[in-house]
Amino acid sequence: MAIMPPFRIVQTESTKMALIVQKYGGTSVGSPERIKNVAKRVARARAEGHDVVVVVSAMSGETNRLVALAHEMQEFPDPRELDVVLATGEQVTIGLLAMALKDIGVPAKSYTGWQVAVRTDDAHTKARIDHIDADKMRADLGEGRVVIVAGFQGVTAGGDIATLGRGGSDTSAVALAAALKADECQIYTDVDGVYTTDPRVVPEARRMSTISFEEMLELASLGSKVLQIRSVEFAGKYKVRLRVLSSLTDEGEGTLITFEEDENMEKAVVKGIAFDKNQARINVRGVSDKPGIAYQILGSIAEANIEVDMIIQNVGAQGTTDFSFTVPRGDYKPTLDLMNGLKADLGAAEVNGDDTVCKVSIVGVGMRSHAGVAAQMFRALAEEGINIQMISTSEIKVSVLIDEKYMELATRVLHKTFGLEHA
Ligand code: ADP
Ligand code: ASP
Ligand code: MG
């Protein structure tokens, strides 16, 4: 059985091999059996001589269950109290994993986010980590213990429990790795690395042995949920060596997120495809085409703390303009209400929208030096009769907004068009 195959580091005689942060997601700790397996994996890393800090998620389905419970109490749960409820999921798994480790003779200690002082800002349900105090963890490691920390949670300056947004345990792990100056942060999940697209949607998707930081950041921000975007941002900022691996097999080196181009990196122009259903489109039609209109529309949305993604402004009839933009699907109704409230002020002819849309994106640093990639994408979609509602591009990505019923078809077609199933 390969033991910690991804980890290559030169061992000197007197020093421990390395400090590793391992993160196990919901499926990986989804049952007592799986938690015991995680314990075995952690024990192996320790037997190899590594210091290990483990970050765990709640058992799969648990955070959703807690969200649903909260919604039974209040239509829009109070964010502070919602965080109190949501953070309980991870507290269960840290304790269970500590027990499983002790049961096989490995000294371990579990900590909630506030016990190890993961300090966050006040933005409940989407808090950002400001600071982590690594002293306590270092002391435990020095005494030969495995340290287990609850992911997804921290504590505000005022002492309140805060959570980091869905998928936030990835970010906890990378932030801890940065604070501890760990040699590697390993994200163990239910797939054995980062694929050219979600392998659940495209069975032909291929695992990449490496992916550049820039491309990973783009894929994560465009909806690939294999890593939470903030974890990738953290890895970039603090140059954390970050790897995605399977907790369900012992095989393979997973995918390493690299910061430098190396000659082994795949040269494909398009490297990956992401999709995102968390989208809704709003149209404001027939507003007068004059300076300040975009500000009037988008300023009010920014004030309501709603994030706007894609934007299109078209010249309409008789000195008017049509304005369309996208917001997260959960903000669809509030945004429509806001625009209807402004309709008279704007002199708009019509406000409407659609919350059954999705965004599909192709990503690759090779696009910088290749023309015609977008055209190839649009042709492939046209050949399938898929209508493009909006487009946005950057140097290394092209995104289209389409009807959500075509999301999987579009992803499969683009995967094929850009030859992603072949190495
Ligand atoms: P965890 O609970 O371990 O955090 P997630 O469900 O958050 O796991 O993330 C892993 C899932 O991400 C995979 O099961 C897969 O369906 C999905 N996924 C989306 N895009 C990709 C991709 N490009 N490569 C690998 N997995 C992806
Ligand atoms: N348990 C949290 C969630 O389901 C955090 C995580 O799993 O990363 O979003
Ligand atoms: Mg996740």
TrEMBL record:
Gene Ontology BP annotations: homoserine biosynthetic process; lysine biosynthetic process via diaminopimelate; threonine biosynthetic process
Pathway: Amino-acid biosynthesis; L-threonine biosynthesis; L-threonine from L-aspartate: step 1/5; Amino-acid biosynthesis; L-lysine biosynthesis via DAP pathway; (S)-tetrahydrodipicolinate from L-aspartate: step 1/4; Amino-acid biosynthesis; L-methionine biosynthesis via de novo pathway; L-homoserine from L-aspartate: step 1/3
Reaction(s) this enzyme catalyzes, per UniProt: L-aspartate + ATP = 4-phospho-L-aspartate + ADP
Pfam families for this protein: AA_kinase (PF00696), ACT_9 (PF22468)
One annotated GO molecular function: ATP binding
Entry superkingdom: Bacteria
Residues binding ATP: K23, Y24, G25, G26, T189, D190, Y195, R200, K225, V226
PROSITE patterns on file: ACT, ASPARTOKINASE
E.C. number(s) listed in UniProt: 2.7.2.4
UniProt keyword list: Amino-acid biosynthesis, ATP-binding, Kinase, Lysine biosynthesis, Nucleotide-binding, Transferase
Residues reported to bind substrate: T63, E90
InterPro entries, per database record: AceGlu_kinase-like_sf, ACT-like_dom_sf, ACT_Aspartokinase, ACT_dom, AKii-LysC-BS, Asp/Glu/Uridylate_kinase, Asp_kin_monofn, Asp_kinase
Domain ACT: 282-356, 362-423
GO cellular component terms attached to this protein's record: cytosol
NCBIfam families linked to this entry: asp_kin_monofn, asp_kinases, PRK06635.1-2, PRK06635.1-4
Similarity annotation: Belongs to the aspartokinase family.
Protein name: Aspartokinase
